[in-house]
Design brief:
single chain, about 500 residues, mainly alpha, 4 strands, about 5% strand
């Protein structure tokens, strides 16, 4: 299979079209890892003093923002209204977060980065936006201008900028954690959810409960909380994530391109689009109030915002399978080199196939097998993203290319270790060896023969990987030494 072709049609035949390997020893059943052997883990990065200082600074900034917002909201709302607002505002958060995490099933992002983006939006972005919005409202008042200008001109600019700053910092310092637009949607979406949660505390607790209690009593306060909850959360709870997702698209494009102009212009374009949508959203009710025509807001929401929302949902669903399709386009390089078998690549192409592979691993190797299969799938996806980055030329500096080559080697070694927990365990299939071109299988009657890869493999064929002769390094296929010696199979044939 050539690198620029997709995995369709005669998928397996073309993918297995590799130089023939050497003479293969008779295949023998593999030995299981010793009892109590721990499931291998992905290699961890060391925390240097510079990373520690940056991490400490970020934690302190988020903590300072959290303390400031807690003090500001507590002093302005009071303890009862604050508690009501917090409880009501937190209710939709798990649902919204789950929607964004659902997009990122192929290669889930590290939990610490997800928490960072959420906390950044909830505490840092809200604190800065609150100060700027209040200062702008005071200036407009002194200048004799309407207060609505703050919502239309200032709030969209400062809120979208501050919500995006967290993911932007993550892109600058952790670009390797970005696999594309999907990650941009996830990181920016979580930042927007955190921002909306704290903003909803103000609306639900202040404009809802406290105002109602002061005017007519607790019953009125409760009714106003319910009314605001329906409007701001049930009907329009997607607003902030929708706006900031535009920035996420721009950041995701920038993360997967080697063109410096695109790296700069794509985030700017996404951020400007997010500001424009946010400003339009705030302008509609202001126009409706100024003209006395509430239908202006209704027509604007239905005619502009709703189509954009469903368009982004469709884009997100399509992007959800991008990483699976990427594995089918990229990992055949490693099949030809003898690191993987054709069915293993096919089994990574969709979430349904990955689930079937985990079910199979549990059946043949127990809990250790299914944990190893999850780790294997994660490592293989990261390997495909890394390989795709090599093709795109994302690493310009030699130090970055060396680090990429080292990370590639670590991922390949991790994949080999994960395979040892489930490959060759299924008694319902023949024992065999994959040489990079065909299978050498031994059947129950004792016969042994070479068999080509099936046309449409959908689950991993449990065979041993025999070390192939290292082929010549093709131009444009990564750093020299990529086809270097493969780690010994966990159960060498003949052992």
């Amino acid at each position: 299979m050539r690198p620029d072709q997709s995995a369709v049609g005669d998928y397996a035949d073309r993918m297995a079209d590799t130089p023939p390997g050497g003479a293969q020893p008779p295949p023998t059943p593999p030995a299981a890892p010793p009892p109590g052997t721990a499931t291998p883990r992905m290699p961890l990065r060391r925390l240097g003093w510079r990373r520690f200082l940056v991490l400490a600074g970020v934690v302190l900034l988020i903590a300072a923002g959290g303390v400031f917002m807690l003090y500001t909201l507590g002093s302005s709302l009071g303890p009862t209204a604050l508690l009501v607002g917090v409880v009501a505002a937190i209710l939709p958060v798990p649902v919204l977060v789950s929607c964004f995490l659902w997009l990122d099933r192929y290669e889930p992002e590290p939990l610490k980065y997800l928490i960072f983006c959420f906390a950044w939006g909830a505490f840092v972005a809200t604190a800065i936006s609150l100060l700027v919005n209040e200062g702008s409202a005071l200036l407009f008042k002194n200048w004799g201008l309407p207060k609505a200008l703050t919502a239309v001109l200032v709030a969209p600019f400062i809120e979208e900028l501050t919500k995006a700053l967290g993911p932007i910092l993550l892109l600058i310092f952790r670009r390797r954690e970005w696999s594309g637009i999907t990650d941009g949607l996830v990181y920016c979406g979580l930042s927007a959810i955190g921002f909306a949660m704290v903003e909803n505390i103000l609306y639900l607790g202040g404009y809802g409960y406290r105002t109602g209690v002061e005017e007519y009593g607790p019953a009125t306060g409760a009714r106003q909380v319910i009314a605001i909850f329906i409007v701001r959360i049930l009907l329009f709870g997607f607003a902030h994530p929708l706006f900031t997702s535009m920035t996420g698209v721009g950041l995701g494009i920038a993360a997967r391109t080697a063109d410096r102009r695109v790296r700069l212009l794509a985030p700017i374009a996404g951020l400007l689009l997010a500001m424009m949508l946010h400003g339009t959203w705030n302008l509609l009710p202001s126009l409706a109030a100024a003209t006395g025509q509430p239908l202006i807001a209704l027509y604007g929401y239905i005619g502009v915002m709703v189509p954009i929302f469903f368009g982004m949902v469709g884009l997100a669903i399509w992007l959800r399978g991008w990483e699976g399709r990427l594995t089918e386009r990229t990992l055949p390089d490693y099949v030809r080199a003898g690191w993987l078998t054709p069915p293993e690549v096919a089994a990574l192409g969709s979430l349904g196939r990955r689930h079937a592979a985990r079910t199979w691993a549990r059946r043949v190797a127990g809990d250790g097998g299914v944990k190893a299969m999850r780790g294997y799938q994660f490592a293989a996806t990261r390997l495909a993203l890394l390989r795709d980055g090599m093709r795109r030329g994302l690493d310009r500096k030699q130090a970055d290319r060396d680090r990429t080559a080292r990370e590639e080697r670590e991922l390949l070694e991790a994949i080999a270790a994960y395979r040892s927990f489930f490959v060759g365990r299924d008694p319902q299939t023949p024992v065999g060896v994959w040489d990079g071109q065909r299978y050498h299988l031994r059947f129950p009657d004792g016969s042994q023969r070479a068999v080509p890869a099936p046309d449409e493999p959908v689950v991993p064929i449990p065979v041993v990987l025999a070390p192939p002769p290292p082929p010549a390094h093709p131009a444009g296929y990564g750093p020299p030494g990529w086809y270097g010696p493969r780690p010994a199979a966990p159960w060498p044939p003949g052992a």
